[in-house]
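Q: Two folds, back to back.
A: First:
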Amino acid sequence: MRILVLGFTGYLGAHVAERLRVLPGARVLGAGRSAGAAFPVDLATARPEELAKTLAAAAPDAVVNCAGATGGDAVTLAEVNARGPAVLCEALREAAPGARLVHLGSAAEYGPGARGTLVTESAATSPAGPYGATKLAGTAAVTASGLDAVVLRVGNPVGPGAPAAGLPGRLTALLRETDRGPDAVLRLGDLSAHRDFVDVRDVARAVERAVTAPAPLPPVLNIGAGRAVPVRELVRGLAARAGFRGRIEETADGGRSVRSGEVSWQCSDIAAAEAALGWRPVHTLDEALAALWEADGTR
């Protein structure tokens, strides 16, 4: 089985590629903008006919799209998160219409959730900013493509190799660099929001199941822990794992997430993924934080 992974050197892509490589008979092919890509692809700028030639050369049985932008201006986000999946689908219809497409979406597509409520795949979508809006546009392109495709709407991934662009990775780097003694002070922004944190290794397992599951699959599946956790709990857990003995202060100028600062509650219902893929997360948040701290961060 030939599996083409776009964005294979990114945070999610690297874990996905590693997981897929252990599948019996699988040959994982890397695609993306990095120098080590077997198939150079830039979804932000590629023309459909050019990408179709690349896909024909790769001859994949399945394509996993882990490519995406989490930061940058609205134009950058739209080019990668909205245009990219649309171009990919058009090229796949031309070059490999029988290939399974697994596209990684985001729980940010839903927007603010009602406190205490699990969000199902049929819930209305009302993204709070450009990131969620562009990811939602990418999902729309995939689900309307007519291909054998599924979108995995991923919650907040955490675990080994987390990038500094997100709070877990940024906090890990900060804890490694700062004094961790009793007089240390860690100043962060408002940590009262609730998030559905899912171990990145569980995300990779979900992708594996989505690649190999028999068709047809539901168009969208939530991939999360199915549990809303205060961001404060993640911060305290990681600080404890690092041996931080100082004080954590939440300050107004400590920074807010550009992607989800207006969303106070986010939690996904993952029952559909269990029914369709036989998947549930197996790692706890504490295990994810332990793996994040112990990793060398050089994935």
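A: Second:
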Amino acid sequence: MLYLLSRSWAKMELWCSAFLALMITLLILLNVATRSLGAALFWVDELAIYTMVWMTFFGASAAMHYRTSVSITLLTDAVPLAVKAIIEKVVDLIVFAFAIAVVWFCWRWFSPLELARAGFDTVAFQGATFNFIYAEPTSTLGVPKYLFWLVMWFFAFGAVLHSAMHLFSNPVREADQ
């Protein structure tokens, strides 16, 4: 069950990454065209950057599911299979701990309970917490930056899901699917 959920989420992440890669290409082409016509749209640069950030986080999370993240296998290639399996489970545990830490940091950063306690009034929230996450606008788009930072929640969910799947799954069964 956990494997199927992880696989479905990873497929959605890859689809989103591919769509965002297409959007980056189109935004850059729009930027080139408008600059060559002498009517540059400065917000396109910023939107392309945020689009690339979202694409990267979705791709990184999906890479956790497929175990295609960059890794150094010098040690695991040199030890017997039993030791390799232990090392991989320790790495899975570390990745899971990292994913839980990302969730905790997102919770601290976005402070959803404190925002609710303030009645979703961002000014009251800022005064009570000195957290200005909901007040900072983007430079050229003029929308709140927290909308772009929401990708951290998607990444955190995917990272917890994929790392938990690896941590609690049987490596032989996983290889068969």
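Q: And?
A: Residues 2-176 form one domain.
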